Amino acid sequence: MTIDKYNFKGQKALVRVDFNTPLDENGHITDDTRIRGALPTLKKILADGGSLILMSHMGKPKGKVNPKFSLKQIVGDVSCALGVDVAFAPDCAKAQEAAANLKEGEVLMLENLRFYPQEEGKPVGIEKDAPEYEQAKKEMKQAQKEFAKTLASYADCYVNDAFGTAHRKHASTAVVADYFDAEHKMLGYLMEKEVEAVNNVLNNIRRPFTAIMGGSKVSTKIGIINNLMDKVDNLIICGGMTYTFMKALGGKIGQSLCEDEYLSLALDILKNAKEKGVNLMLCTDSVVADRFANDADAIVCPSNNIPDDRMGMDIGPDSRQAFAKTIEEAKTILWNGPAGVFEFDNFAHGSEAIAHAIARATQNGAYSLIGGGDSVACINKLNLGNQVSYISTGGGALLEAIEGKILPGIAAIKGE
Ligand code: AMP
Q1: Structural domain of residue 361, as residue ranges?
Q2: How far is it, in rounded angstroms, from Cα 296 to Cα 135?
């Protein structure tokens, strides 16, 4: 079923949202992007004449009740955003009555699902290598099913709009879907947009396709790099991982970030790119600093000839120019991970150049997807959010989707 086709009139909809919003020390929301992201789905259901049972996790309470992670803290914000008073069920597994009493247009929010270990379905307090772990895991899986069944019993249909947790096989993100038939479960609008965005860079590619991979480490990006190798025309590698490649190639990298155990893998990536005809671009010049600080002394030098007492902090001007040219010629763009230590303004110029090039390419008709934590923060810092095609809301989920993995939250609904 799709959300557009479903008529929610008189229906109770159990909606998995991602309201894992950042809070300050007084429990006030510091960024409400996730709440705003869910609004199109929630408003459609209410406009149809349905009622809402909202469920989410917040933080990592590890299966125990912890007021610090109570969703009660955000009930007022959700009410404001929706323009409807939101009732609160203080125990998500004991909300039968509150759910049964819901009337058309009313909204009930359940307490943090992760106050129950059944949500994540992992045994708590038993080490993975303990002899009793396997049995405990089996029992927990059974308990997870019961928990999901209880949640399902509250509603007539299930909507998953929580892309941020779609890569997890949790009670509320995947298992609960087993208790609804295909006609009564669907993705929300946010999820649909994320799925479409991933599809645009994995299957619906307009060429040339340029992927920019930055960030700190090669180790966390290998899966994506490998999957993209069969798809992209240009693969730009920048950020801290540059120096693992430079060292593998015999370069001098001074104090730069390096993962010595990945040197041979870096060479494999280069070889693979050559074999597949991918234009892999490394940053040839770097801005190198004498210490890890914004006000450090900085000079530009070749990325493979860095003085012993300096570290690569950003891509240099030649690389900025070369990368920008390739990006501007692209018709499909994926950006994950900053080009340098962008948190320090003095080393953010490389990431800025990339962000501006992506904005220009998008203006010229390219499709651009920005995803995975820090590149999103970077594009937002530059106020270029509305000049790219799509900014993903999912960190880990997006990365896994781009690695080519099937996400349990999506599979549970689409039956893949
Ligand atoms: P990731 O989570 O792997 O995408 O990495 C993001 C982090 O990489 C950011 O916090 C950046 O500061 C960091 N980063 C980018 N370039 C460098 C670099 N040349 N040296 C050290 N850290 C870097």
Answers
A1: 195-402
A2: 54
**Atom 21 in ligand 1: residue holding the nearest Cα:** 240
pTM of the shown model: 0.90
> CA dist 361 to 13, 28, 119, 304, 389, Å?
40, 38, 42, 30, 10
Q: What are phi and psi of 249, to 5 degrees?
A: -85, 5
Is residue 310 annotated as part of the catalytic site, yes or no? no
Instruction: Tell me, yes or no, if 10 is annotated catalytic.
Output: no
Give, in order, the Cα–Cα distances in Å from 253 to each of 83, 213, 263, 322: 56, 19, 13, 21
Strand bridging mode 332-336 / 209-213: parallel
* Ligand 1 interacting residues, C-beta cut-off 6 A: 215-217, 220, 239-240, 257, 312-313, 337-338, 340-341, 343, 373-374
What pLDDT, in 10s, does the model give residues 95-154? Answer: 999 999 999 999 999 999 999 999 999 998 889 899 999 999 999 999 999 999 999 999
Is the same domain home to 102 and 226?
no
Q: Is 291 a catalytic residue?
A: no
Q: Report if residue 416 sits inside a domain.
A: no
Which CATH number goes with the domain that contains 323?
A: 3.40.50.1260
Determine the distance separating the centroid of ligand 1 and the alpha carbon of 25, expressed in angstroms.
27
Measured from the Cα of 343, ligand 1's closest atom is: 12
157-204 pLDDT tens trace? 999 999 999 999 999 999 999 999 999 999 999 999 999 999 999 999
- Whether the pLDDT of residue 364 is over 90: the answer is yes
Interval 24-75: pLDDT, tens: 999 999 888 899 999 999 999 999 999 999 999 999 999 999 999 999 999 9
Q: Which of 223, 395, 396, 404 is catalytic?
A: 396
Distance 240 CA to ligand 1 centre (A): 6
Q: HSE (CB half, 13 Å, CA atoms) of 257?
A: 18
Kindly give the distance from the C-alpha atom of residue 338 to the centroid of ligand 1, in angstroms, as a whole number: 6
Domain count across the chain: 2
